[in-house]
Amino acid sequence: MSVLDLARPEIRTLQPYSSARMEAEGAQIMLNANESAWPPAGDAGLGCNRYPDPQPGGLLQALATLYGVRSEQLFVGRGSDEAIDLLVRAFCGAGQDAILIQPPTFGMYAVCARIQNANIVEVPLADDFSLDIERLVGAVTPAVKLVFLCTPNNPSGKSIARTDIEYLAKALVGRAVLVVDEAYIEFSDQQSAVDLINTYDHVAVLRTLSKAWALAGARIGSLLASPDVIALIRRIMPPYPLPLPCVSAAMSELSASGQAAARDNIAIVREQREIMRAALARLSGIREVLPSDANFLAVRFDDAGTVYQRLLKAGIVVRDIRRYPNLKDALRITIGTPEENARVLTVLGGEKP
């Protein structure tokens, strides 16, 4: 059975939109896209008067090298959110198919499903935010086409063991696409699931440059999957998903010097995460600092609402995650610079780390 058998039949046979840029290969004078012939002021040589390549070859190759895949196993879009949305649209027929998630988890899986009018099957995480594998497998009905795993999890910060991911990959053969969201993997010692896509054509991995690579404002996210899945996603992608300034920013960050700087910052975040975890655990009014493999800490407070307002009055915004299951007393604190982290501790009544 091919993974494409799980996709919507009308998407498999869809005639994709052929953009003007796709038809311009090798052209010297481009008069096919109704663009301006003149670049805008301050263009700095980017050529923003022209539509961008839908999947720029240089960026694809740089990301393929970074993630250890082939370019035909890679789709690049506007953050991981776009890849999530396209996966749901490609595999879930409105009103008939479903996704499976494990709350508490990243909210966009459910949002994209609801927009598509796909059903949502929930298998909640355990009290310690671990995955109940057998319960998850048992919940996969024929309607479930996509199973999303977030590791490290957002908002808890807990990782899923590689052995558990492999077990699910085997259990879901011919049943559903396993989508492993690794937005925070760079901050973890956990092994990526990327290599599994060479063994299982129904495994897909989400990666992003928004977190560890400091490009949240550029919106560059990747879907890593079998060539068949990538080709399917490219059938329904927007004509021009990647603005030229964003591609330029990504190429700069993925240069040798950019990668070295990013890895230095990742090391600082990991070090500061442990410093903050220990310092927060010593403060009164804090019930628990959850273990985290990400660039944030989920913290349980005696009165999370009051703490949130206290930080806000001091000019510090953290994430209120009390709406999530099993986190009704918690705030999520991103690891900032050492100076920013020290300020948080000062406002919370502790000493600087």
From TrEMBL:
The modification N6-(pyridoxal phosphate)lysine is found at residue 211. Keywords: Amino-acid biosynthesis, Aminotransferase, Histidine biosynthesis, Pyridoxal phosphate, Transferase. It catalyses: L-histidinol phosphate + 2-oxoglutarate = 3-(imidazol-4-yl)-2-oxopropyl phosphate + L-glutamate. It comes from the Bacteria. One of its GO terms (biological process) is L-histidine biosynthetic process. Residues 46-347 form the Aminotransferase class I/classII large domain. This is Histidinol-phosphate aminotransferase. The keyword Amino-acid biosynthesis applies. InterPro entries: Aminotrans_II_pyridoxalP_BS (IPR001917), Aminotransferase_I/II_large (IPR004839), HisP_aminotrans (IPR005861), PyrdxlP-dep_Trfase (IPR015424), PyrdxlP-dep_Trfase_major (IPR015421), PyrdxlP-dep_Trfase_small (IPR015422). Belongs to the class-II pyridoxal-phosphate-dependent aminotransferase family. Histidinol-phosphate aminotransferase subfamily. One of its GO terms (molecular function) is histidinol-phosphate transaminase activity. Its cofactor is pyridoxal 5'-phosphate. PANTHER family: HISTIDINOL-PHOSPHATE AMINOTRANSFERASE (PTHR42885:SF2), HISTIDINOL-PHOSPHATE AMINOTRANSFERASE-RELATED (PTHR42885). The gene is hisC. Pathway: Amino-acid biosynthesis; L-histidine biosynthesis; L-histidine from 5-phospho-alpha-D-ribose 1-diphosphate: step 7/9. It comes from Dyella dinghuensis.
